[in-house]
Amino acid sequence: QVQLVESGGGLVQAGGSLTLSCAASGSISRINAMAWYRQAPGKQRELVATITRGANTNYADSVKGRFTISRDNAKMTVHLQMNSLKPEDTAVYYCGAAIATQTLTFSAWGQGTQVTVSS
């Protein structure tokens, strides 16, 4: 079992910055890729960024150049540095982990953290 706990969400003005963190516990040796997804009201959950154990990253086009995903394998934490935030970034952000697979299939999820960007 893997448990994920997100933190760092909040209210910020457009143009501001926030850093989200996700701490994993439990069977962390089984974790490979990790990711951040988000879900805005009335919309489907969408991918924000992924990062493999080897620190290969991938970003949604909407956040490229503004968001940076990083991880600490020793602590099994993943972070999302969000700069130049826009109102359309408002969503609940979820941390996901791929368990015992080399694919980007995320089966463990945190409870989510709210990010609200005011205009």
Walk me through what this model shows.
This protein is mainly beta. It contains no helices and 11 strands. It has strands spanning 2-7, 10-13, 18-26, 31-39, 46-51, 57-59, 67-72, 77-82, 91-99, 108-109, 113-118. The strands form 2 sheets. Strands 2, 4, 5, 6, 9, 10 and 11 form a 7-stranded mixed beta sheet that branches. Strands 1-3-8-7 form a 4-stranded antiparallel beta sheet, with no helix packed on it. A hairpin with a 5-residue loop joins strand 5 (46-51) and strand 6 (57-59). The mean pLDDT is 96.
Structure described in brief:
The protein is an all-beta fold and 119 residues long. The protein has strands spanning 2-7, 10-13, 18-26, 31-39, 46-51, 57-59, 67-72, 77-82, 91-99, 108-109, 113-118.
The Rg value, from CA coordinates, equals 13 Å
Number of strand elements: 11
Low-confidence sequence ranges: none
> Biggest sheet, in brief?
7 strands, mixed
Write the layout of secondary structure elements.
Blueprint: E1 2-7, E2 10-13, E3 18-26, E4 31-39, E5 46-51, E6 57-59, E7 67-72, E8 77-82, E9 91-99, E10 108-109, E11 113-118
Parallel strand pairs: 2-11
Antiparallel strand pairs: 1-3, 3-8, 4-5, 4-9, 5-6, 7-8, 9-10, 9-11
